[in-house]
Amino acid sequence: MRPAPFSVGILGTSGYAGQVLHALLMQHPCMRPVCIEGRSPTDAGPREVERLVACDAVALCLPREASKEWAAALELAAGAHRPKIIDLSDAFRLEASPRETAAGNPIHYGLPELYGAPPPGTQLIANPGCYPTATLLALRPLLEADLIDAQKLVVHGASGASGAGKGLAEHLHFCNLSENVFPYKVGEHRHQPEIEQHLGHGAQISFVTTLLPLVRGLSVTAFVEPKAGVTPDQLREALVERYLDHRWVTVLTEAGQGLGLRHVHGSHQGVLAVGPRQSGGHIPVFASIDNLMRGAASQAVHNLNLWFGLFAGLGLPAPLENPAGIPAAAGSLGRGLMYA
Ligand SMILES: NC(=O)c1ccc[n+]([C@@H]2O[C@H](COP(=O)([O-])OP(=O)(O)OC[C@H]3O[C@@H](n4cnc5c(N)ncnc54)[C@H](OP(=O)(O)O)[C@@H]3O)[C@@H](O)[C@H]2O)c1
After folding, report:
1. Residue 142 shares a structural domain with residue 79
2. 178 CA to middle of ligand 1, Å?
3. Is the CB of 167 under 6 A from ligand 1?
4. Domain count, the chain
5. I need a labelling partner for 292 at 20 to 30 A (CA). Which of 22, 112, 142, 162 fits?
6. Residue 271, ligand 1, Cβ within 6 A
7. What is the pLDDT of residue 264?
8. Is 338 a residue whose pLDDT tops 90?
9. Beta carbons within 10 angstroms of residue 77's beta carbon
10. pLDDT tens digits, one per residue of 86-116
11. Which atom of ligand 1 is the closest one to the Cα of 89?
């Protein structure tokens, strides 16, 4: 007999991330979504709070302050049974420890390839943001391998408009977005501290972001300064080595069309590439993801799979191995052992 599926309460199903998470859980073989209405615990009422507490996990697809309020209310309401909480906002990401000190912290930073499965004792997963996910996948292995200078990182991010959520704002009007590209939140992007903290190694980044006339998709171009004698090939090899067992990260042989956001649309894939050294000495490192999938909802499913002890890939789209026919670097398709 098939075991009863895990129930996952979702708060925020009327938002972009909540909608995608709901759709993924609807076709997940071992989880079922439980949608809860209510903008606050008081608004939802005690019955809805009880329904949530009875779930195996609760996903908060809400703005930061609402996530904090719901997480506190769930903790208060929980008796012997305490649901696992996964938060898609940035309310808890800075409290989640860098990987080196993760043991014993009840808040786990949920970037599976870099931080692994939630350790025992985890009470809440802080699901990483979309820019942090792309930047960390591209750069953290290079810092771990001591191949690049941590203080001289220049990162340009570009995102489709769904990254801003469904709230109305003038710069998101069709007439401003369509056939247009412009920088936004220059010098004040809220993801910068999260990226620096989770890059570790004393990393400091110069970070600017551009809004693209797309619904979804996010790309990061990082200019890194290699340590003396380090070549682009060595950077690529370090990424290939780091992601050998991780099928949802593809390292391409060359930077180009394979990084196109169209290819990652709807996928859980992080697609990486390393460009040739520039005449100024920097080497570009690229990452493309779907902000609503790998940057939010599919990352949450990946984390929940690991937290429930399920196969990491359940309910996720199949890995994307050669976008646009651009071959992945030798070895980067992994050994296929863990799929984690
Ligand atoms: N969009 C992305 O690419 C992305 C990526 C990574 C992380 N995130 C994070 O995920 C969270 C959700 O993002 P989103 O893009 O789905 O946002 P969204 O489209 O604006 O949706 C927000 C959801 O939260 C609800 N909500 C709004 N204000 C609220 C409040 N004050 N109290 C309670 N509920 C409220 C909304 O309900 P109503 O319909 O009633 O307004 C809606 O269901 C955010 O923290 C965001 O930073 C988003």
Report:
1. no
2. 23
3. yes
4. 2
5. 142
6. no
7. 96
8. no
9. 15
10. 999 999 999 887 666 666 789 999 999 999 9
11. 45
